[in-house]
Amino acid sequence: MANYFNTLPIREQLNQLGIAEFMDSAEFADGVEALKGKKIVIVGCGAQGLNQGLNLRDSGLDVSYALRKEAIEQKRDSWKNATDNNFNVGTYEELIPTADLVINLTPDKQHTSVINAVMPLMKQGATLSYSHGFNIVEEGMQIRPDITVIMVAPKCPGSEVRAEYLRGFGVPTLIAVHPENDPQEKGWPEAKAYCVGTGGHRAGVLKSSFVAEVKSDLMGEQTILCGLLQTGSILSFDKMVEKGIDPGYASKLVQYGVEVITEALKHGGVSGMMDRLSNPAKVKAFELSEELKDIMRPLFQKHQDDIMSGHFSKTMMEDWANGDANLLKWRAETGETAFEKTPAGDVKIDEQEYFDNYVLMSAFIRAGVELAFETMVQAGIKPESAYYESLHETPLIANTIARKKLFEMNRVISDTAEYGCYLFDQACKPLLADFMKKIDTDVVGKNYNEGKDGSVDNIKLVQINEKLRNHEVEVVGRKLRKAMTAMKAIKTV
Amino acid sequence: MPKSIHIDRLNLAYAGKSIWKDLSWTIYPNEHYVLGGKSGSGKTSLGKYLAAHHDAVYIANWYQFTNLEGDRNFYYQQRYNRHQGKDTLTVRAELTHYAQKEGLDIRDIQHKLQAFGYEEMLDSQLIELSSGEHKKLQLIKGLWLKPTLLIIDEPYTGLDKQSRKVLNEWLDELATEGVQLILITNDEQVPNSINSYAHIVEGKLVREETQDALIQDAVRQQKNIPEFLKVIPHTDHEYMFQLKDVHIKYGEKEVLKGIDWEVKVGERWLLQGANGSGKSTLLSLINGDHPQSYGLDITLFGKKRGSGESIWDIKEKIGMISPEMHWYFDQQATVWHTLASGFYDSIGWFIDVKFQEKKQIEELMNFFDLTEYKDQLLHSLPLGKQRLALLARSIIKNPPLLVLDEPCQGLDYNQARYFNDVVDELCQYGKTLIYVGHYESQLPKGIDHKIELAHGQVKAIEHNIENVLK
Asked: Which stretches in chain B have pLDDT values below 50?
């Protein structure tokens, strides 16, 4: 199988990369009609599989689950998830041949084997849906020409997909149709109907392509979402301990601080996050982040270049073939860091304290979000796609760190994201060595405002605010966030 | 040696309105209080103030629990959705953890758990508990501490008769052991040890000789029911719903065991049963919230369940309120948003409210005396007002079927009577009613059928009831 993207002429590469259109709600006026009465079979019943299936069924659609024979015989969790909720469950052989729409919601890594098992069983003219395009774009999986291939990707964890649906809302969703596989031109109507069935149409839908989704998704997860959060967390913790801050406090400030600080992104974007700081702290965070952007820009560019050329997926797939040797080694190393091994102290930290005592994290986040966004857009990805894969997902990933630190983050994200995260982290730490030498506890561990009178140069502040608010990620973000109204309150831990 | 508690000249204002004006209160040893009076008079705030400034335990009128990550992002149907990940602690783990934290011994409350019928719950996850069971857990944790001063805000909310009796006996027991009680309630069945009564009148604390002397909210002035609610909903089926031999299982645990229940259009049913007997689960089958309803023999509004209808098609025909829905309601919804969301059956979120709908919202806010609160956050109002807003939400679209699960929780006697009169009036205009309530004194008069559950089974069904209030 050859990398699909690399087989395309440059004009077609740019064309597919550039598909990103925020869809008008009128486009969903037909509701679930295109799938009404059709047989939907979901492969995989983990968090996404189960929760999407519950929503689709509650929208009046006919949903069953196809599981591997062993999963059924051994009554694994996927089998229990499906049967406990009164779903019809069967083997691939039993259910796939009856399906009008097969939804593949298994982990990325299993896609090739799942598709190879499922495709021969699918009936003529059926539809196959993915929630991530790696298999098609990077692995170059070729789907039988009579089959329609679509993508529906809710941009939230499965539990949220369900919770928001039942509240009468939904989560932002990206949909696509693979141009090589749309023989009957039913791809878009079905993708839209599927999206309505999960509630996604109520929270903003981005029309994308398999290519745009993969190239932006990989970039986001490797750099700002996972890579930089990991690097920033570890460097912050080590710095505090080096400077004599209580390790329990340091551990808690980092573990929960990442979440509390990035929550602010959900409501007001980067400038909303920076507005949580006092004026002097904002100026400081701005200056630090400018410096960080200059230092890290070449690394962000390298990641984007390797993703575009296919070098990243090639080396990662070599590691798959090698029994995940690198991945497992790096995972073990992350488990051994001092941050990971120091439990959060039993201290109460107020919401505002996370901002005041951790100016450095706001600087990391601003630098990372803007850099990832800028680099993607420079590479031909549209701002809307770049927004979802940078700013939008940052608080969602930060939430996993708050649960059980980096180990949990790396467990929850895909192996693909985890692999890229380690690559970034290993390159980024040495790059920031000199920068970190200058960092003291005023920006990480202690209240930056202490002993300062709060006054700043007004003109400077105006300029900084202008620069923050007018960045393209903010402009496009304001537009997209308007569509996702029902935001939850900022949490305190 | 027990000491008296003195409160001296307290002042409190909320939203520009003065609540307490130089409020003073002396609580002598051996006095056990009922603090009653009008809603919005500052009772809850006074309870919290006392607890914060004296060595006391305060049990709030609202319970909370978190998942294992300390998160509270639950939705009210989550109880019914099954997945293998364990999100919340079990009751046993929660109690063990609490005992450790507070230096208590779980063996000391073994017989209380038994009395509350709580022993079989020990291995359930917190998310699986009904609202009444959550309330009991909250009470157990507070009473277990045996504090010198125990303040309970609305102790009886959601408790069934038996649990209420157990609670009162336990409170009497504590009183003899030297625990001083302050119960914030307008309920009349209080423990025998209560010997003092007080309410807040014009910002000052006033003591009374008897509980009867405590001022209740005035009987509200009758207003005409808005015209749009007088429209008889169109139905083209004889039965509102039919359930046949319905079983619900969670793993090995069976919570509904072969329920048969048919309700015809226009009937007014009372659904009763002890806490945890399966009432809410049964209702969740009717309003589309239970995933296991697919594949069961259920007919809703003349259509077989699972024949292509969406849960939104079902909810459109039902006006629903329940303690759980209240508990999980959007924290950021204003009173106006709350009512508006009733048109879309969403939790505080809606698309685009049309002119006619806006008019209905206005009329209904006026009818329930909610207009002055319309831009306030729902959660900032006294509990009774929150309830009224949610009740208004449930009828805003003039649905053919009303499912009112303990709608009067948190309302005092007069508010409850007023509300039930409204329900009776609505029923005159063709609505079908399913009503859950523990106390005969707090029911709509028009109820003409009754179903009683016990341990997930139908214990009794009565038809053609003449007077349910008897």
From this structure: none
Q: How confident is the model at residue A368 (pLDDT cuts 50, 70, 90)?
A: very high
Q: Name residues whose C-beta falls within 8 Å of residue B334's C-beta, 6 or more positions apart in sequence.
A: B374, B375, B376, B377, B378
Residues of B in contact with A57 (CB under 8 A): 291, 294
Residues of B in Cβ contact (< 8 Å) with A32:
310
ipTM given for this complex: 0.83
Based on the domain organization, do B199 and B90 belong to the same domain? yes
Helix H or strand E encompassing A190: helix A187-198
**Domain(s) of CATH 1.10.1040.10: residues in chain A:** 212-482
Is residue B308 domain-shared with residue B443, that is, in the same domain? yes
Pick the CATH number of A21-207 from 3.30.70.260, 3.40.50.720, 1.10.150.240, 3.20.20.70: 3.40.50.720
pLDDT band, residue A215 (cuts 50/70/90): very high
Which three-class secondary structure state does DSSP give residue A461? helix
Residue B280 C-alpha from the chain's centroid? 12
pLDDT over threshold 70, residue A127:
yes
The reply to whether A311 belongs to the active site is no
B146: left (phi over 0), alpha (psi -120 to 50) or beta: left
In chain A, residues 155-174 whose CB comes closer than 8 Å to chain B = 162-163, 166-169
Whether the predicted pLDDT of A242 surpasses 90:
yes
β-strands B196-201, B33-36 pairing: parallel
In chain B, pLDDT over 70 holds for what percent of residues? Answer: 92
Would you call B330 and A167 a contact, using CB atoms and an 8 Å cutoff? yes
CB A41 within 8 A of CB A65: yes
